[in-house]
Design goal:
This protein is mainly alpha-helical and 57 residues long. It has three helices and two strands. It starts with 6 loop residues before the first strand and ends with a strand.
Length: 57
């Protein structure tokens, strides 16, 4: 089976969309990973669900 729509953590998707408004994809990911507060906001919620559907774009 192929994945038609990937599931992503909602908090991570929100951070990603905020950063992508001004940064390239790689820079946006780097900005999220280098910010301890941003990174903790989605990693501390692991195991609690909160997934949302995303597009491949």
């Amino acid at each position: 089976n192929r994945v038609k729509t990937p599931l992503v953590r909602g908090r991570l998707m929100k951070l990603w969309r905020e950063k992508r408004e001004t940064l390239s994809p790689v820079e946006a990911w780097e900005a999220i990973q280098n910010d301890p507060a941003a990174r903790a906001s989605y990693t501390k919620k692991r195991g609690s669900g909160g997934f949302v559907r995303a597009s491949w774009d």
